[in-house]
Structure formats: structure tokens, C-alpha cells
Amino acid sequence: MGDDTTSVTAALFGLAGFEILAAAEVGGELELLVQTTAGLVGCPACGAVARAKDRRPTWVRDLPQGGRAVVICWVKRIWSCPQPLCERRTWTEQHVAIAPRASVTERARAWAFEQVAAADAAVSRTAAALGVAWWTVMRQVIDRGAPIVEDPDRLAGVSAVGVDETAYLRANAQRSTTFATGIADLSAGRSARLLDVVEGRSGTVLATWLADRDQAWRVGITTASLDPFRGYATALSNQLPGAVRVLDPFHVVRLALA
Fold first, then answer.
1. Is 93 helix (H, G, I), strand (E, B) or coil?
2. What does the buried/exposed string (b/e) look like for 178-209 if buried means 16 or more CB atoms within 10 Å of the residue's CB?
3. Neighbours of 94 (CB within 10 A)
4. In sequence order, what are the residues at sequence separation of 6 or more whose Cβ sits closer than 8 angstroms to the Cβ of residue 68?
5. How far apart, in whole angstroms, are the C-alpha atoms of residue 70 and residue 14?
6. Hey, which bits of the chain come out as E strands?
7. Which of 169, 221, 219, 170 is nearest to 195 (CA)?
8. pTM for this prediction
9. What is d(CA 108, CA 137) in angstroms, rounded to the nearest whole number?
10. pLDDT digit string, tens, across residues 84-109
């Protein structure tokens, strides 16, 4: 009869192509010793059945479980070709779930991005859940998020925009307050969403952002909601002359609650 605890742990782990050899809790983290379920492996050069020559441990972070960060120790097999004339003598096994020289599994990378981008979790909290550095998560946000932000189709169908300022860095003895300008999609018939955040608070900042959009997009904007800041009003008048401007200082609150 098998070990029920091991079976449950394996089911929770659920990473296809791997099996758990051992599990332990160390320093509040769950550590798993795993190996691939590889059986017969062919030499990539000649196709002969390879032999396992050695093992090489690789440590990576995985999805948190039960509120604990998870560390995987993957004992990679070092394969060798038995054919003496084959040019491929040895190689280390690889798996699509863990990229070479990676510090985090592929599914943990995707999870980290979803936590920040879709679940509105803080980068610091997501990093703490994985047990990694802040930049490890932020790198995923940038790498995966930049193509989404830069996709021109993301701005398609926008007929109403909202503009407001946000103080994202408060003043102290060494610096003044730093502001950002937020542009939101407030089109009727769909949920409000943030289109972009631009550093600075001025008509020039907003006018530059609007000028970067094509003429057809600007013509399609029929309504613009803004706070009572003259710089924004001037930019909207110049760049969106056909839009009806509505003073509404609370649209960002509604956006956050949507």
C-alpha cells in the first residue's frame, strides 16, 4: 500500500512530467525533491537508447502551497550515449516546465504575472508568496505586460476617456510630490479600464499622449471626463475638439471600484 501523504503531496504538486521523491518543511517553506518521469530516452544525435550517467541538482521556485513558498530541487539526469562512435557523448535532460538556468518554474512565472496584472496584487506581496526578490516578479510583469500594453488593438473601440492625476510619490524633505496622469476607458456598455499611466501632470503630458494616437482614434472619442485642471482641458480641446468635456473629479474612484 502506498504512502497516502506522498500521494496527496504529488496531487497538490501536479506538475506534469515530474514525480516527487521526498518532501519536507524547512524554515516555513515546503521543499520538494523531484525527478522527471522519463523512461527510455534516445540520443539526440544517433537515436540510441541513452544511459543515465549522473545527477545534477537544480533549485527553482514554484507555486506557493498552503500559504507557504515552495522550493523544488530537480535532480536532473545526465544522459550518455552508449555508442562509442557517436559525436554526442553526454547531455543534461531538460523540461518545458523549467527553463534552463531559470530560478522560477514557468507556471510560477505565469502565476506571478496574473497576480499583479489581473488580481491587483502588489509586486512585493507576490514576491513574498513565492519567496523571490521583488525584481524577479517585476521582470515578469514587464516582459509579459509590455506586449499587451503596446498592442494597438487594446485601444480599439474607445469612445469615452477619463483623465485624472495621481500622486504616486509623496513629498518629503528631499523631493516634491511626483504626479502621474491616468487615462481610462469609460466607454458605455463595458467595464471601465485603465488605458495608460504617464509620468507627470500637465497639459503637455496629456497632449503628447493623445497626439501619439492616430487621427481615426481621436475622432472616435465623443466624451472626455476630467478633473478641474486647466492643463488637461486645454489638451483635450486641442487634441479632441469633437469630444464633449465633462468635469467629473470622481471617475477614477468609480474606475477603481468597477
1. coil
2. eebbbbbbbbeeeebeebeeeeebbbebbbeb
3. 11
4. 25, 28, 29, 30
5. 13
6. 18-26, 29-36, 51-65, 68-80, 90-92, 160-169, 178-185, 193-199, 223-226, 244-247
7. 221
8. 0.76
9. 10
10. 999 999 999 999 999 999 999 999 99
